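User: Hi! I'm working on a homework problem where we have to compare a predicted structure to a textbook description. Could you give me the structure for the chain below?
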Amino acid sequence: MKHRVLIVDDEAGIRQALKQVLEFEKMDVRTAASGGEALTMYREFRPHLVFLDVKMKGFDGLETLSRLRDLEPSAQVVMISGHGTIATAVEATQRGAFDFLEKPLDTDRLLVTVRNALAQADLAGENARLRGAVSERYRMVGDSAALQAVRALVAKVAPTAARVLITGDNGTGKELVAHAIHDGSPRRAAAFIEVNCAAIPSELIESELFGHMKGSFTGATADRPGKFEQAAGGTLFLDEVGDMSLPAQAKLLRVLQEGIVTRIGGSRPIAVDVRVLAATNKDLPSEIGAGRFREDLLYRLNVVEIRVPALRERRDDVPVLVRHFADQLGASAGVGAKRFTQEAVAALQRRAWPGNVRELRNAVERLLILSPHKLVGGRDVERILAGRDTGDTSRQPGPSPASGDFRDDAERSRIAAKLHELDWNIAETARALKLPRSSLARKIERYRISRESP
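Assistant: Happy to help. Predicted structure tokens:
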């Protein structure tokens, strides 16, 4: 991809000389003779880098710089001037200029500046792309009334400093709610640190959260900051907080009360500014009654509670979730684009989904991989997901033609797809699958594959 550069100068000779140098470096270059022309051209051309003269008629360079930055906050602009002063350079930098070059321009210095500015522009673009990818990954998909209620509560609580307890069954998307709160908060530019309290052994959870000093226990070979320190200025998400040990709960309560942590083996208290979000699939009042969770900690964590509905409570979202997962997983699963028929979506919508959105995502991925055609139908749902859900009481699916084992399902679908692709030419199919014809024949019989098979 060619980098795009816009040169803005009211001297035609400067514009032409710069253009020749940069085009020799294989860049796509356009020129403008005034600030007004530059602003109009910028919207269409979307350059990676702008060279902008300070002294021009109409809008001068500094005014044009400010307007460019208003138009595109990440715009990379290098100011050039034959009457440069320190005060002008400082003001240009304060207004967002990447660098300031004096005329006559030195070619070596010019090219170094171009490389550095474009490198920064590329990095900013990559960061924006990654932020967009992260945002898409953690987007709450659906328009049901139940999900809209969650979004409305997130919008109210996100801009505040309140601690939030996110409750709901496994697989409902509690992590997505935590990300949405962080993204809507004043802390969005700082770190979002997640700790799965159920996945960390109880003897290590304190070290994970609060850090440790070298030699404080066996295996502590160096000083290590905990998650609270890593999340300073940002958000700490304690997933499955109901599985935290009682000793760790006591230390967590103290941190929430005092805003300081002390590493294991250390004596120096460290102040931390962290917003804590917590999530659990457990009934914490029942856990308190059983002596497994501290009541005072619940009050600290549960300033606002957001309950994430189970998928069975928002069945209207199943069609849009299926489309979302099919688009998202098609490329990553290596099967290309596939569509689901209305019958397939209706069959998925009727199921109970005890594993909630996570289970639906896995089912869509399985269907994408194992269905032999570009169109996933209702019969594919029956065959591939047979016996995996008891929520559809409208009918009982028959036995799967395969053994029920994932590998057998995959092999049957691969053979059926190749047979259909090669118009049931057994010899060609055997060669394509690198199987002896006799082995292919046995597998066709074993899996009961016919020309009419889905």
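For your comparison, note the following. The first strand starts at residue 4 and ends at 8. Residues 322 and 364 are 7 Å apart (CA to CA). Good luck with the assignment!
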